[in-house]
Amino acid sequence: MKKNYNKSTEEEYPDISIITSPVKSFFYTVGDMLSFARSFVQNLFERPQEIRELLKQAYIFGNGSLGLVGITAFIVGMVITLQTQPTLAELGAESWMPSMVSISIIREIGPLITALICAGKIGSSLGAEIGSMRVTEQIDAMLVSGAKPMNFIVKTRVLAVAFALPLLVFYADALAFAGSFISLQMEMNISLELFLTQALDAVKLSDVIPATIKTFLFGLAIGIVGCYQGYYAKKGTQGVGNAANRSVVLASLLIFVIDLLVVQTQKLLF
Amino acid sequence: MERSAQEGKKDEINRTTANGNEKAVDSNSISKSFGSNTVLKDIDLHLKKNENLVVMGRSGSGKSVLLKCVVGLVTPDSGSLTVLGKDLQELEDHELNELRRKVGYLFQGGALYDAMTVRENMAFPLKRIPDRPSKSEIQDKVEEALDSVGLIESIDKMPSELSGGMKKRIALARTLILEPEIMLYDEPTTGLDIITSKEISNLMLEMQEKHGISSITVTHDLSCARITSNRICILRDGNFIAEGKYEELENSENKEVNSFFKN
Questions:
Q1: What is the pLDDT along chain A (270 residues), one digit of tens a residue?
Q2: Which domains are seen in chain B, by residue range?
């Protein structure tokens, strides 16, 4: 049966207890989540466009993650440099350090680290927030007032994460560069100008664009998984806790799957 | 003295109700099961315009599911359900949303949006109707609705700053802001002290009188049932086992029915 998330909440608790096999249960959840994602896409152009709510959520997600993402990216930038510098020095390729660090940060480490942090921070908050809205009947209250929760709650939050994440990745990349420069500065006396020239010269548009697309997809995955888990939260505080927990686990797993798929596609295309 | 005033209001409403046979809600043989658990069995529910029907029953007897069926949150497995002359099963999305704006639903916990202020809560449904009023009209309606429940001073508070009774009154005001023709009250006085419960019950009666609203109230609260009901139905195991006015059922010889009216 085709579900209509803007119409009824009757199907809110699919009875998967009758599915005893964990494999079947997994595929049931995947199918259900895809149906939820389809409903999100169908609602993309649904009016009213809740722009104010979208900007509010993007600000909350983006601004709220700056500290954690910034510190983590800075440390990761330092650590990568400290760990690879001796090996490159042994090979006499120390001067390649800025290029190597910048490519690895832009292509992989920046997007992956940021997405994993956001899967934990934003994914869990989405699962818990929407889950508690479900438990306290706020979603039902929206439905009975003729408003569309899929439009107001889900669409705004998924898009907010999807658009905030690439911006967070640019910010994380910059701080990882800073961390890398400081640790290089400690090991070998390199000027900021030289570091930046070498680091940025190595980066091509074909590195930035796929990484940004990948990050956008990570954002969509975090948003859809978090909203789905919250939307389906079972009654009670345990249900909300489970929704938050599952959001993090599933979103993190999906991030790696999407990463692999995008890298393979990128290899075919470029 | 207070009781006779309430009785007077109710008598007037009873007379109005008796004059009109137009039905606000008309259901025939609706049944609903969740898995192997049958919640409603061939229920016939009829609500006349301007009537307040109270549904009483033990916990888990299917009262809330019945209310959710009326507003289309739950679809019956069988039977027909007509609300304000429209068959719920035949309605498209936009038609159902349109109908829902004419049917107010007061949730047991109020279901105020806890990330929004009272003002934003009140304005939320108004901003999402097709003929959206202007900002100043929305502002006026919000203030008027809050004033009618005596909570205008709470307009900029967050739901977390409100007491249980205040939440219920604001939730009621939020529901009434769309000027519904039918109100569905799910345990409107549960968890409130006797005085606040009475205030809410009187407010419900006042709204029924002032706006000519038909309503279905699900409650365990005898005082609320006595104050607001024109007619009471007793639900047990998914079936109505008795129907009548408060006094008739209170003096019923059927022990099972009578037991609901003993504290």
A1: 445 555 555 544 555 555 667 777 778 888 889 999 999 999 898 888 899 999 999 999 999 999 999 999 999 999 999 999 888 888 888 888 889 999 999 999 999 999 999 999 999 999 999 999 999 999 999 999 888 899 999 999 999 999 999 999 999 999 999 999 999 888 888 888 998 998 899 888 888 999 999 999 999 999 999 999 999 888 778 889 999 999 999 999 999 999 999 989 888 876
A2: 2-259 (3.40.50.300)
Which one of B30, B66, B74, B113 would you mutate to disrupt binding with A, by most A Cβ within 10 Å of its Cβ?
A: B113
Question: In this structure, is residue A16 part of a structural domain?
Answer: no
Describe the crossing of helices A156-187 and A110-118 by its angle, rounded to 10 degrees. 130
A136 shares contact with chain B (CB less than 8 Å): yes
Q: Does A1 touch chain B (CB under 8 A)?
A: no
CA distance A241 to A129: 10
| Structure tokens belonging to residue A84 | 């690879």
Three-state secondary structure call for residue B44 = strand
* A9 inside domain: no
With contacts defined as CB-CB under 8 Å, which chain B residues touch A129?
115
* Tokens at B96, concatenated: 């159902």
Name the residue among A74, A67, A73, A99 with its Cα closest to residue A84. A99
What CA dihedral angle connects A29, A32, A36 and A37, to 10 degrees? 70
Residue of A nearest to B36 (CA): A15
CA A155 – CA A164 distance, rounded (Å): 14
Q: How many Å apart are CA A95 and CA A55, to the nearest integer?
A: 43
Q: Per the domain annotation, does A34 fall within a domain?
A: no
Write down the H helix ranges in B71-193. 93-100, 118-127, 135-148, 164-176
User: If 0-12 CB within 10 Å is exposed, 13-18 middle and 19+ buried, where does residue B133 land?
Assistant: middle
Among the partner-chain residues B72, B93, B100, the one whose CB lies closest to the CB of A145 is: B100
Amino acid type, A18: I
CB contact under 8 Å between B74 and A8, yes or no, is yes
Q: Is residue A4 part of a domain?
A: no
Give the dihedral of Cα atoms B225, B226, B231, B233; nearest 10 deg. Answer: 40
Query: Which residues pair with residue B242 across a beta bridge?
Result: B234
Q: How far apart are CA B241 and CA B263, in angstroms?
A: 20
Residues A110/A169, Cβ–Cβ less than 8 Å = yes
Total domains in the fold of chain A: 1
User: What is the extent of the structural domain holding A89?
Assistant: 49-269
Predicted-complex ipTM score: 0.85
Yes or no, beta carbons of B72 and A136 under 8 Å apart: no
CA distance linking residue B118 with residue B124, whole number of Å: 10
